[in-house]
Design goal:
Blueprint lengths: L15 E9 L9 E5 L10 E8 L4 E3 L8 H9 L7 E7 L9 E5 L5 E3 L3 E7 L15 H9 L21
Parallel strand pairs: 1-3, 5-8
Antiparallel strand pairs: 2-3, 4-7, 6-8
Length: about 170
């Protein structure tokens, strides 16, 4: 146990038959090393006994697919399909003017990056564009109306003014 399977010198164990019986992912044991054996070390065995060795394949990995613009349910199905990686999935929401509500705006890690067992994957879901209820700007000065519109938190509005004659509003 702990030795690299391919480096084991069979001539040191002439009375035993060493078998690489099983390969498993293990985040703690380096790829290629023996994790366990059956029968256990220091057990009395007969000549010709087959010793079954479990070999580490190292940390299990996968690749992150591009989930941007997929709906939340499809993104979740994809991530559920990676259950053997034991990922921690975090779903966040954010406003987006580019991606429709209920669809993925971005992920961390990004598409094409390697996923490792036990890793946290964060998926941001669009809440659509941010909206608000406008206040009535009818009797405001041009400067006050423009300042109000430019200072709406998170709205990033482009303000364009058109002037027209009015007999109802005093200048």
């Amino acid at each position: 146990v702990g030795e690299v399977f391919n480096d084991i010198d069979q001539s040191k164990y002439p009375d035993l038959i060493l078998l690489d019986d099983e390969y498993v992912y293990d985040a703690e044991v380096e790829e290629g090393k023996v994790i366990s054996q059956d029968p256990d070390a220091h057990t009395n065995v007969a000549k010709g006994t087959k010793v079954k060795l479990v070999i580490s394949m190292g940390v299990q990995t996968g690749e992150m697919n591009d989930l941007v613009n997929r709906n939340k349910e499809n993104a979740q199905k994809y991530l559920d399909g990676l259950s053997d990686l034991n990922l921690t999935i975090v779903m966040e929401e954010e406003f987006s003017t580019e991606i429709e509500a209920g669809r993925v705006t971005r992920t961390d890690p990004e598409a094409g990056e390697t996923l490792q067992a036990g890793q946290t994957v964060t998926v941001w879901i669009s809440k659509g564009p941010q909206t608000m209820t406008m206040k009535d700007l009818k009797d405001e000065t041009h400067a006050n109306a423009e300042a109000y519109l430019k200072n709406l938190a998170g709205m990033n509005l482009e303000v364009r003014a058109e002037e027209e004659a009015s007999e109802e509003i005093e200048v």
